[in-house]
UniProtKB/TrEMBL annotation:
This is Response regulatory domain-containing protein. It comes from the Bacteria. InterPro entries: CheY-like_superfamily (IPR011006). SUPFAM superfamilies: CheY-like. It comes from Nitrospira defluvii.
């Protein structure tokens, strides 16, 4: 059983996760922001973080850096709705690689892809 934290999930992502997670016995928490996530859960106890990144809402690479800093041992899945062309493509992928974010899924995401990604992320060894 894993401790999974979902951050900044919109209605579509919540619905997708509810479809992907049945049958898996995990403890799942939801948080509206990274700041509230820090307050509600101990970062060292979180096994997997699924965080929605929305570039059009003034989120930038520093938000991804803060996510990795806050949850240094957790496996990270970032779902991205890239509305800012400046963040799409190579720049965004470079930031994802540098921060060692395990998976990045660009929206729209299919249920099967989310299920496979969660299972793959949880199969990885915990970060040191």
């Amino acid at each position: 059983m894993a401790n999974i934290l979902i951050i900044n999930a919109d209605a579509n992502l919540k619905r997708l996760l509810k479809l992907a997670l049945p049958g898996m016995e995990h403890f799942v928490q939801y948080s509206a922001t990274l700041q509230t996530a820090c307050a509600q859960s101990a970062p060292s106890k979180v096994d997997l973080v699924v965080s929605r990144f929305v570039a059009g809402d003034d989120q930038g690479p520093e938000d991804l850096m803060e996510l990795r800093r806050t949850f240094p041992t957790a496996r990270l899945i970032v779902t991205a709705a890239l509305h800012d062309p400046a963040l799409e493509g190579e720049k965004f992928q470079r930031v994802v690689r540098e921060l060692q974010i395990e998976y990045c899924l660009l929206e729209p995401i299919e249920t099967g892809a989310m299920l496979h990604t969660i299972q793959s992320a949880l199969a990885l060894p915990k970060r040191p």
